[in-house]
Write a structure and sequence with these properties.
single chain; 317 residues; mainly beta; eight-stranded antiparallel sheet; six-stranded mixed sheet; 19 strands; 12% helix; elongated
Length: 317
């Protein structure tokens, strides 16, 4: 697992600081069946024991952060219908059971008048080990949470980006990981492009999608300057994240200086590396040739903006 970070974050209506891990951990699951792990007082499980034992899955969808599973017997399970039940999943080399133990609305999300499809629901999952014991699916972050957020699509470790994926594909984005943190920061890949407006819009100026912003956030959290899945961060780093669209605003921590501007492809320029022990400006320019000439003092917030940066961050130099 990668490290931890103190992320200084603000959503549309609320500023907050969290100690959160920069690890990227997501569960890539192919659900084969829904299994009743214990009697559940939900209509979906009404019937005799045989009905509650195992039901093959017909289809899976994730709407916003809500997992919906259609069974071959015609039932549709969603949200609290699934609490106490297990998902029989194929991890490639073996079958495992992942149990949903609880769901809660993200208490750190202070937005008002949120559309139902955009509510952030945190899911507490446990996974069955080889010896039959159960343990948390997600590692815990310094904020104490070890929950996951279902999100439709697929993450590619080859380039560190999240995309649409195939039908029924989804990730369980752990709250301790970059994918989960960026959702909680307000960058929701499922939202429509027309909901996102730049602060200063000019005719002909392209409006980025929420997916673009989400991927830029993932690259930023991991300090993946080249946008190729190579993170360079570590535990305990202080990061101030902000953008030009009012989703996040900069903090007033004078210890920090501008680090980089970001798109879904990684950094557009780098003023200083977040962790000098992990990589230097010279190494950044050599490893990622597109950043040659775009490192050091010439990389300012204004320069990054002119290069198309969607997100910006500051860190302690």
């Amino acid at each position: 697992m990668a490290g931890a970070a103190l992320i200084t974050a603000a959503d549309r209506h609320h500023r907050m600081k969290r100690l959160l891990r920069t690890a990227l951990r997501s569960a890539r699951l192919v659900v084969l069946a829904v299994v009743a792990a214990a009697p559940v007082a939900a209509p979906a499980w009404a019937g005799d024991e045989a009905d509650r034992a195992t039901s093959p899955v017909a289809s899976i969808t994730v709407e916003g952060t809500v997992l919906k599973i259609s069974l071959t017997d015609g039932r549709v399970l969603a949200f609290r219908d699934l609490i106490g039940a297990s998902l029989l999943v194929d991890q490639g080399d073996r079958l495992r059971r992942v149990r949903l133990d609880g769901i809660e609305r993200d208490p750190d999300d202070k937005r008002r008048d949120v559309a139902p499809a955009d509510v952030i629901w945190l899911h507490s999952y446990t996974i069955e080990g080889p010896d039959g014991s159960w343990g948390p699916l997600c590692d815990d972050g310094p904020d104490g949470r070890r929950q996951a957020i279902p999100v439709a699509g697929r993450f590619s470790s080859a380039d560190g980006r999240f995309g649409a994926g195939g039908p029924g594909s989804f990730e369980l984005a752990c709250t301790a990981g970059a994918m989960g943190k960026c959702i909680r920061f307000g960058y929701h890949p499922w939202q429509a492009r027309d909901l996102l407006k730049p602060v200063s819009h000019h005719d002909g100026e392209p409006v980025p999608s929420y997916l673009d912003l989400y991927n830029a956030c993932i690259q930023m959290v991991l300090a993946d300057y080249g946008g190729d899945g190579t993170g360079t961060t570590r535990n305990g780093m202080i990061i101030d994240l902000y953008d030009d669209r009012g989703i996040q605003v900069p903090d007033a921590d004078h210890r920090m200086a501008f680090e980089a501007g970001w798109t879904q492809d990684g950094a557009v320029c780098v003023n200083h590396p977040r962790v000098k022990e992990n990589i230097s400006l010279g190494e950044i320019a050599v490893r990622w040739r597109r950043l040659a000439g775009r490192t050091g003092a010439s990389c300012t917030e204004e320069a990054a903006r002119s290069l198309g940066a969607l997100l910006f961050n500051r860190s302690v130099p």
